[in-house]
Write a structure and sequence with these properties.
Layout: H1 3-21, E1 31-36, E2 41-44, E3 60-63, E4 68-70, H2 79-88, E5 94-98, H3 101-108, H4 118-124, E6 130-131, H5 139-149, E7 154-157, E8 161-166, H6 169-192, H7 200-212
Helix pairs in contact: 2-5, 3-6, 4-6, 4-7
Length: about 220
């Protein structure tokens, strides 16, 4: 295995632990993957393993057709979903699926999370839409998620949870954190009054700033 693949396995294992301690999942649910584009592989969390005890060697390496290349564990049942996103979105190299409580509540009532705070607008690029319901682990679910995700960076799975994507897996994880925070703010704001949604043209401008010039310049 190349250094790039081993580093990706290490990162995914670290984020699995962080996902659990951050309260974005409970038990063994949720999943994380990273695309190692130069090697033509995806690394993904194993099915049904305790994140607290996850080791880099537990992270499964698959080719982009879903064949296991390395690892003794069974890969996440949502591997087809991750692969479908990578095939549809060439700007994405990390996918994180969480069951965070407030975002999932929006998924249960089949209601999108509208852009009400600027950090979520920057990261997501618009409302977090709800994908049509399908059973987990199915090709139907993968197709619905890809369609609802479009060119944005987060999508809800009806009655299931949240998927965040990013240019790398750390960014995808941050998307999930920020969307959960935004969902809480949106829900609280609706109890206080009528939330004011950020205008579409401003959401686009915020997203473009984040994608093109946010943060420190590369050296």
């Amino acid at each position: 295995m190349s250094v790039a693949i081993e580093n990706a396995r290490l990162k995914v294992a670290e984020l699995g632990k962080k996902m659990l301690t951050s309260g974005l999942v409970a038990g063994t649910w949720g999943n994380i993957s990273a695309l190692v584009r130069q090697e033509g592989v995806m690394v993904i969390t194993p099915s049904g393993m305790d994140y607290a005890n996850l080791q880099p060697s537990d992270i499964v390496v698959l080719d982009l057709q879903g064949k296991v290349l390395e690892g003794d564990r069974k890969p996440s049942s949502e591997a087809p979903l991750h692969l479908a996103i990578y095939q549809a979105r060439h700007d994405v190299a990390g996918v994180v699926h969480t069951h965070s409580e407030v975002a999932t509540a929006f998924a249960v009532v089949r209601e999108p999370i509208l852009p009400v705070v600027e950090d979520a607008a920057m990261l997501v690029g618009g409302a977090v839409a709800v994908a049509e319901y399908a059973l987990p682990g199915t090709e139907g679910l993968a197709q619905h998620v890809v369609a609802a995700l479009g060119d944005r960076y987060a999508v809800l799975m009806a009655n299931h949870g949240l998927v965040g994507v990013g240019r790398h897996v750390d960014e995808a994880f941050t998307v999930c954190q920020v969307v959960e925070k935004s969902a809480k703010i949106y829900a609280w704001a609706r109890n206080l009054g009528m939330p004011m949604i950020i205008p579409e043209q401003d959401v686009l401008a915020l997203s473009q700033v984040y994608r093109n010039s946010y943060g420190q310049p590369k050296k």
